[in-house]
Amino acid sequence: MAYYLGTTPTGRLEVFRSRAKPTRTSTDGRYRSCRGPMSEGAAHYLKFREENSYPPLPPGLTAAELETLAAEDQDFYWQALWVVLTIPAEELARYQEDEALEYNPDFAPAE
What we know:
It is a single chain. By secondary structure, the chain is α+β, with helices and mostly antiparallel strands. The protein has one domain. It has four helices and three strands. A three-stranded antiparallel β-sheet has the order 2-1-3. The termini are far apart.
């Protein structure tokens, strides 16, 4: 399933997934416009750029070029989000377990 970046009637940006190209009818009017299809990382990158007042991207970028820009952007806050979006599932599970132990010792295995 592809990812899209939708703009709600109030102007809020949302990343969402859809099997087919979304329309106002198919989304029950939830979005006044949408961009995509693209990868999850690319959709979040567009949202991040717009919410943080980055300069506009050049017109005509492909989804692959957008994904490359997302991977190469050196903004500290974007890189933190990018790591979360691209971390392998096994590594994420290990990280979450370590974090749970750090903040709640009750999760530690009984010795």
